[in-house]
Amino acid sequence: MNPQACTDCTRPSVDQERILLGHGAGGQLMAELLNDVITPHLAAPVEDAAVVPFGAARAVLSTDGFVVTPRFFPGGDIGSLAVHGTVNDLAMRGAAPVALCLAYVIEEGLPTAELRAVTASVAAAARAVGVPVVTGDTKVVNRGCADGLFVTTTGLGRLHPAARVSATRGRRGDVVLLSGPIGAHGTAILTAREGLGLASDVASDSRPLHRLVAAMLDAGGEDVHALRDPTRGGLAAALNELAAAGRIGIECDEPAVPVPAAVASACDLLGLDPFEVANEGCLVALVHPRAAQRVLAAMRARPEGADATVIGEATAGPPGRVTARTLVGSHRIVDLPLGEQLPRIC
Amino acid sequence: MNPQACTDCTRPSVDQERILLGHGAGGQLMAELLNDVITPHLAAPVEDAAVVPFGAARAVLSTDGFVVTPRFFPGGDIGSLAVHGTVNDLAMRGAAPVALCLAYVIEEGLPTAELRAVTASVAAAARAVGVPVVTGDTKVVNRGCADGLFVTTTGLGRLHPAARVSATRGRRGDVVLLSGPIGAHGTAILTAREGLGLASDVASDSRPLHRLVAAMLDAGGEDVHALRDPTRGGLAAALNELAAAGRIGIECDEPAVPVPAAVASACDLLGLDPFEVANEGCLVALVHPRAAQRVLAAMRARPEGADATVIGEATAGPPGRVTARTLVGSHRIVDLPLGEQLPRIC
């Protein structure tokens, strides 16, 4: 059984394009892949979670595959990350998690103890969130046909009664709030990754954000227009996606964006832009100005939002354009990252 | 980035056991893995789909990873199989599909045309079922870190109003119904698989069963006690799981089980037991005797149940014991298969 096994099956095309690592990195290449391959067949949603009418209620669904390497890193592991990632995708639509599903693809030869440790971590993270893992699936593939363990989590959520959150609801004049410092997750993964020889004490910020979002919605209701967690592609991708979906401009005050010193120095060393490094425990919000201070106060009252701050505002445009005011007062364009800066970050 | 990348991370144990291919095959080894690794941390459900209270309604959730090789085979491909597999897992709890989620793990280098073909197949299968794909996720891993493409589908379903279906509801005296011939899917995959040199015209039976189940529940209501689709581990595994969950015996009339001639000869050639070969388009039902003929008639009125037949009955036991009356009138024990007969069948 080798990876080329399907060359003599009924492969449907002679098209010579191939998938690149950057197609999975949350940037421009990924957007192109979705537009080129997915949209012609399936509706490609603007959001990571979908709202589905279910009886008299509305259900929220989100699914996410996790392929992070290494699987254990400072601040978490693939199991806790999978729980937090899916809980946060639900939260970004204004939903609280009701149930999680868990699917493993395991490479033959994975130490059983490691599977046990990841499963214990899934269970502990789900317990801390307060969501049951209700069903699962386990597949095993031949040695060499996967990289140890891939985890796919899917969440069912219930909308907060006051939630009218959508990436498309950003409006000119909205205040841009950030819940905390950026860059920790990507930097922690780099530190833990083989061969890079970095010594740093940065731990991933991986954590659930559903309680923070509930507090924001309690405080701001419909005035909380849009939420995004800056994961793959980092803050740059999140702001660009919000600007594009809302057909607004976003002007961000670069010195106002909190970047921990250890993250900044690791990024300097590696030539990375902290705006493009993945996060797993913070969020960006577009909030109507009349509610911004109230929402900000509600965020700061929670541990995961203690460092929440205003980082900019939504402008008339040009639609989709994100700019940053630098320390010296000039403006730079913050582009959607092209492809992978750090592959397999989640 | 090599598959051993995580040896210098914080691997949590020196335990020397490792996952075997057979741990994913739906048999005894898999049951042991679930008991040993999953149950200590998460509830290991008896069913492939979970019923979750959701507002005033009950939601049904099921998740399934697909790693079939080859990805294109007579009668289907990994995309249609992923849709049918999840729709059928929902159906086995008596639920109709409301929404699907789709997660890809793609190996760098996969031809884009192949991803496009699989996505088109997902879309076509979902359209035929009548269920929207509402959200998805795409991850790309380095070349050599996956085998082309893995697909995880998760379904949200709504319970049929009359459904009280559970693997645990099998009762002594229940009639065992089978919706159609067995063995086609596994045989088709074998035929398509590189190097086995079989020439046969068997196509997979992959298809959605939710309409068949709705017709059965319309006809039999609560008298439809338990449903199971005999996928990994085949009919042998399905009957053993129903017998164990219901604490009943099952006596099966072997000559009554329809095995197509092409399947029988392929199995003969390869030393396989058709009872253990995977199916993707039939189901086993335990039905109260007073409703059995009515349910059988409803099944036969639908194309996917045209060959439905009685294959046995539930007995007092010993609990969990499955026996088959052979052509010559003797009895043999039908065991839960140990491990992989055909790895990566779905």
Structure explained in plain terms:
The structure is a homodimer of 346-residue chains. The first copy, chain A, has 346 residues and is an alpha+beta fold. Chain A folds into two domains: 46-159, 60s Ribosomal Protein L30, Chain: A (2-Layer Sandwich), CATH 3.30.1330; 167-333, Phosphoribosyl-aminoimidazole Synthetase, Chain A, domain 2. Helices cover 28% and strands 24% of the residues of chain A. Chain A contains eight helices and 14 strands. Chain A has helices at residues 28-38, 78-91, 112-129, 184-192, 210-220, 234-246, 261-270, 289-300, and strands at 50-54, 57-66, 72-73, 76-77, 95-107, 133-141, 149-159, 175-178, 224-228, 249-253, 284-287, 309-315, 322-325, 331-333. In chain A, the strands form three sheets. In chain A, strands 9-11-8-12-10-13-14 form a seven-stranded mixed β-sheet. In chain A, strands 1-2-7-5-6 form a five-stranded mixed β-sheet. A two-stranded antiparallel ribbon of chain A has the order 3-4. In chain A, helix 5 crosses helix 8 (289-300). The two termini of chain A are 28 Å apart. Mean pLDDT of chain A is 90; it is low at 1-14. Chains A and B meet through helix 1, strand 1, strand 2, strand 3 and strand 5 of A and helix 1, strand 1, strand 2, strand 3 and strand 5 of B.
